[in-house]
Amino acid sequence: MITVNGKTISQEQIARETQYHPAPSLEAAVHQASVALVVRELLLQEAVGLGIQTPVGVDPVASEESIIGVLLEREISLPAADEESLRRYYESNRKKFRSPDLFEASHILFAARSDQAQEREGARAAAAATLEEVRRDPPSFERLAKERSDDKESREQGGHLGQITRGQTTPEFEACLDALTPGEVCREPVGTRYGYHVIRLDRTVRGRDLPFEIARERVAEYLGASAWTRAVHQYIQLLVGKADIKGIELDGAPTPLVQ
Q1: Cβ distance 41 to 255 under 8 Å?
Q2: What is the domain partition of the chain in residue ranges?
Q3: How far lies 58's CA from each of 62, 71, 73, 180, 183, in Å?
Q4: In whole angstroms, what separates CA 120 from the centre of its chain?
Q5: Does residue 198 contact residue 189 with C-beta atoms inside 8 Å?
Q6: What is the pLDDT of residues 8-37, one digit of tens each?
Q7: Distance CA 170, CA 161 (A)
Q8: Was domain 102-205 assigned CATH 1.10.101.10?
Q9: What is the C-alpha to C-alpha distance for residues 72 and 67, in angstroms, rounded to an integer?
């Protein structure tokens, strides 16, 4: 049984909370859920102790979130990062502050589920045969896409996907685009969770570093969010240190951030 300053956290509460904490094992998920509930209870008890009251007639869950938000805003004060700190972070992390790479690409998809070995082998073979046809006759790409692609959205456009930025496709698809030069077709079919693709890179526009004056607001937001996260964790650790918590080991356990 877990108690926080004498208040019991029930097994029913833990069971409901566990679904929100994906983990490698059920035991790990249950522990993460238990820690989250302990932290929540600590914050709510502290809020009550400071006179932060539950609004009348408000949904209980929303009310608790509001109370915790008021508590953290009241108890945690962060100075704004100075100009020197902003510039120093910008200079050390230029890759974070650049316009995105843009790719224009086309593909022919042979769909196959990742859990169907025979289906995937058939898709791979069909993609390989189509790739050979494209290599022999590059202008045939659009026609073959219209005839064979399982991607209904791009099929009518001759396989054209339009502009793509990083994160919009699968890692395998993106890695292929990185390896190609404009006008080049993949050397072998590219397997993803959707099936096998014949991919052609049509155009690349590489991103550029944003000047500090444009990136400054993003730098300030990032540093502010990082500082807030650290401050909230430190505040929670202070509450843990002065609380009477039984039934769970918190030493060394990461305390979940409460928004």
Answers
A1: no
A2: 2-82+215-246, 102-205
A3: 7, 17, 20, 56, 60
A4: 28
A5: yes
A6: 999 999 999 999 999 899 999 999 999 999
A7: 14
A8: no
A9: 9
